[in-house]
Specification:
It is globular, with a radius of gyration of 16 Å. It is an alpha/beta fold and 230 residues long. It has helices spanning 27-36, 59-68, 84-93, 108-117, 163-177, 194-200, 209-212, 217-229, and strands at 14-17, 42-47, 74-79, 97-100, 121-126, 144-148, 182-186, 204-207. An 8-stranded parallel β-sheet has the order 1-8-7-6-5-4-3-2. Bound molecules: D-xylitol-5-phosphate and zinc ion (ZN).
Length: 230
C-alpha cells in the first residue's frame, strides 16, 4: 500500500470546556459541574485587549478556582502580548499547561523554557493562516500544539473547516518526529465537527458555547464522546 498513513492520535481524547462561555458569576460551580459531568481538563482563555480585541480574566481567577477545590488539569491559553512576565503568575496560580502564540513573544524558545523551568507543560498555538512551519524549530520541546479553528478573540464563532487541514499537517509532523505532544483544536467545536477533528488527528477538544450553552452538561459531553468513537 502506498500513500500517507492515516492520521492517528494514540492518546485518550480530552474534552476541555472553555470557561469563556461559563457563567462568570458562578465560575467555581460551573467548572465543578462540567468536570463532574465528564470533562477532562479546563480550558482557561486569557485575553488582554491588546493581542486580541477582548478582555477576559487573569491569574487571580485561576487561583480562586484552585482555592474553590478544582483539581483537574488546567489548560491556560494565553492570548496576550508579551507572554513572559505573566507565565509565572499562571504557574503560581495552578496552571498545568500554558499555551501561547508565536508572535506574542520575542523568543518562542525562551518562553517555552521559562514554562518548563517552572514545572508546567508548554504549548504553541497556531491561528488561522499561520504556517505549520512555525512549529518546526521548537517541535521537540512542545507538550501541546493548539490549532485555532476560529480567529482568536471571541467565543461563539463558527468553526473554520479549513482548520482540519492544519490539524492533519500538524499530526503528520508530530508522528514523523515521534513527538508525544497533544494536538488540541479550539474554536467553534461542537458535536457535529468533533468527530472530523478527531479523524484529522486532534486528541484534545476545546468547547465553550457547545457545552456551557446547554442545560445538561453530562448529556452534552456524552454526545461528544459518542461522536468521538463513532
Ligand atoms: C477563542 C478562544 C476559544 C473559544 C472557545 O479565542 O480561544 O477557546 O472561546 O469557545 P467556543 O467553543 O464558543 O468557540
Ligand atoms: Zn482558547
Amino acid at each position: 500500500m502506498t500513500g500517507p498513513a492515516p492520521a492517528t492520535a494514540t492518546k485518550p481524547h480530552w474534552i476541555s470546556p472553555s470557561i469563556l462561555a461559563a457563567d462568570f458569576a458562578r465560575l467555581g460551580e460551573e467548572v465543578t459541574d462540567v468536570l463532574d459531568a465528564g470533562a477532562d481538563t479546563v480550558h482557561f482563555d486569557v485575553m488582554d485587549n491588546h493581542y486580541v480585541p477582548n478582555l477576559s480574566v487573569g491569574a487571580s481567577v485561576l487561583r480562586a478556582l484552585r482555592q474553590y477545590g478544582v483539581t483537574a488539569p488546567v489548560d491556560v491559553h494565553l492570548m496576550v502580548r508579551p507572554v513572559d512576565r505573566i507565565i509565572g503568575d499562571f504557574i503560581d496560580a495552578g496552571a498545568d499547561y500554558i499555551t501561547f502564540h508565536p508572535d506574542a513573544t520575542e523568543s518562542v524558545r525562551d518562553s517555552i523554557q521559562r514554562i518548563h523551568e517552572s514545572g508546567a507543560k508548554a504549548g504553541l498555538a497556531l491561528s488561522p493562516g499561520v504556517p505549520v512551519s512555525e512549529l518546526q524549530p521548537v517541535l521537540d520541546d512542545l507538550d501541546l500544539v493548539l490549532v485555532m479553528s476560529v480567529v482568536p478573540g471571541f467565543g461563539g464563532q463558527s468553526f473554520m473547516p479549513e482548520s482540519l487541514d492544519t490539524v492533519r499537517a500538524v499530526r503528520r509532523r508530530l508522528d514523523e518526529t515521534g513527538s508525544g505532544a497533544r494536538l488540541e483544536i479550539d474554536g467553534g467545536i461542537n458535536v457535529d465537527n468533533v468527530g472530523p477533528a478527531a479523524q484529522a488527528g486532534a486528541d484534545m477538544f476545546v468547547a465553550g458555547t457547545a457545552i456551557f450553552g446547554t442545560d445538561d452538561y453530562a448529556k452534552t459531553i456524552q454526545s461528544f464522546r459518542s461522536a468521538l468513537v463513532g
